[in-house]
């Protein structure tokens, strides 16, 4: 565990019973492909009486409070050297699967099953094989939790740091607790960025998206890399926010991020895929694009 995390209690590190609780919550906000969260649906969502909702709210309070511009730089410096661990790809899935839901080990599918269901749904629709691989790899960054990162620094909707927050980000009222909120330079429309600078120049809140993008960036086509890097940036791909930071390249890539999102959100099925049957296909696919080992 890294020193700076010692100030957090166990409850602050892991407010959710499992990482899946965040994704289940996203599904309630965006119940259908192409839905955006209208103010009415947001209100209904808030009023829905559910104890799980309180833990999600607490999760976002922590996320919005602690994901500062400096926090993101510190995590980038710490993780983007990829000097923590090196594993063969298939061992990495086993490593990821150590993330289990303590509260309900029987009902939730493990991480690998979610990845496989996502990739199989993409394959069934006849998309290119690199997109199937995106489906298989897209949540590999959740291993950050196994390196001791708090849940709110691994999952959660991502958003740009160093500029004004969109009020379309879930629970925007919690941003007032973020120390960046009192730094005027970070609270203008463009903040530390320039108009139309392109998302590649924008620092996003830290989480599994950026980490897996950096891990995969030499191995997949650009469209696939956008899917990885921005799949949790709901304020952009669902709500259409932050137009003023985009360049033409981002605008042309948005359709790919949107194409991927329903496979992530709506492919969950209680029936686990038949891995024995699928294994030869995936072994070939991984060998075609990825090196023998992955660096973490
Ligand atoms: Fe994800
Ligand atoms: Fe996912």
**What percent of the residues sit in helical stretches (DSSP H or I)?**
40-55%
Structural class: mainly alpha
The low-confidence runs, each spanning 5 or more residues with pLDDT under 50, are none
What is the count of β-strands? Answer: 2
What binds here, in terms of ligands, is: fe (ii) ion
Give me the strand/helix succession. Answer: HHHHHEHHHHHHHHE
Strand content: under 5%
Shape category: globular
User: How many H/I helices?
Assistant: 13
The largest sheet is: 2 strands, antiparallel
Strand order of the largest sheet: 1-2
Work out the count of structural domains: 1
Termini Cα gap: 15 Å
The protein's oligomeric status is single chain
In round numbers, the mean pLDDT is 93
Give Rg in angstroms: 18 Å
Characteristic key phrases:
two-stranded antiparallel sheet; binds fe (ii) ion; 13 helices; globular
Q: Could you describe the 3D structure shown?
A:
The chain has helices at residues 10-13, 20-29, 39-47, 51-66, 69-79, 89-96, 111-124, 129-137, 208-216, 222-230, 234-237, 248-266, 275-289; strands at 86-88, 293-295. The two termini are 15 Å apart. The mean pLDDT is 93. The protein has 13 helices and 2 strands, in the order H-H-H-H-H-E-H-H-H-H-H-H-H-H-E. Helix 7 (111-124) crosses helix 12 (248-266), helix 9 (208-216) packs antiparallel against helix 10 (222-230) and helix 10 (222-230) packs across helix 12 (248-266). The protein has one domain (13-295). Helices cover 46% and strands 2% of the residues. Strands 1-2 form a two-stranded antiparallel sheet. The longest helix has 19 residues, at 248-266. With 296 residues, the chain is mostly helical. Bound molecules: fe (ii) ion (FE2) (2 copies). One fe (ii) ion (FE2) binds at residues 138-139, 208, 231-232. It holds the Pfam family MIOX. This is Inositol oxygenase. Keywords: Cytoplasm, Iron, Metal-binding, Oxidoreductase. GO terms for molecular function: inositol oxygenase activity; iron ion binding. Its cofactor is Fe cation.
């Amino acid at each position: 565990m890294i020193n700076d995390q010692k100030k957090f209690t166990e409850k602050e590190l892991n407010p959710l019973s499992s990482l899946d609780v965040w994704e289940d919550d996203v599904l309630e906000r965006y119940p259908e492909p192409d839905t955006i969260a209208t103010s009415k649906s947001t209100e209904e969502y808030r009023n829905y009486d559910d104890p799980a909702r309180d833990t999600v709210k607490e999760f976002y309070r922590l996320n919005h409070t602690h994901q500062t511009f400096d926090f993101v730089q510190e995590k980038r410096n710490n993780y983007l050297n990829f000097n923590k661990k090196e594993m063969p790809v298939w061992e990495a899935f086993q490593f990821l699967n150590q993330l289990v839901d303590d509260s309900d080990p029987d009902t939730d599918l493990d991480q690998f099953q979610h990845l496989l269901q996502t990739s199989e749904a993409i394959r069934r629709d006849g998309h290119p094989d690199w997109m199937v691989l995106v489906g298989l790899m897209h949540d590999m960054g959740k291993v950050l939790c196994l390196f001791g990162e708090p849940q709110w620094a691994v999952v959660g909707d991502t958003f740009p740091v160093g500029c004004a927050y969109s009020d379309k980000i879930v629970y925007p009222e919690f941003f007032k607790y973020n120390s960046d909120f009192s730094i005027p330079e970070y609270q203008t429309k463009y903040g530390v960025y320039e108009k139309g600078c392109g998302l590649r120049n924008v620092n996003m809140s830290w989480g599994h998206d950026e980490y897996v993008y950096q891990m995969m960036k030499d191995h997949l086509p650009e469209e696939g890399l956008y899917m990885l890097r921005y799949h949790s940036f709901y304020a952009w791909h669902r709500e259409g926010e932050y137009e003023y930071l985009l360049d033409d390249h981002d605008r042309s890539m948005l359709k790919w991020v949107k194409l991927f999102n329903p496979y992530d959100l709506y492919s969950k099925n209680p029936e686990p895929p038949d891995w024995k049957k699928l294994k030869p296909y995936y072994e070939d696919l991984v060998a075609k694009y990825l090196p023998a080992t992955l660096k973490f």
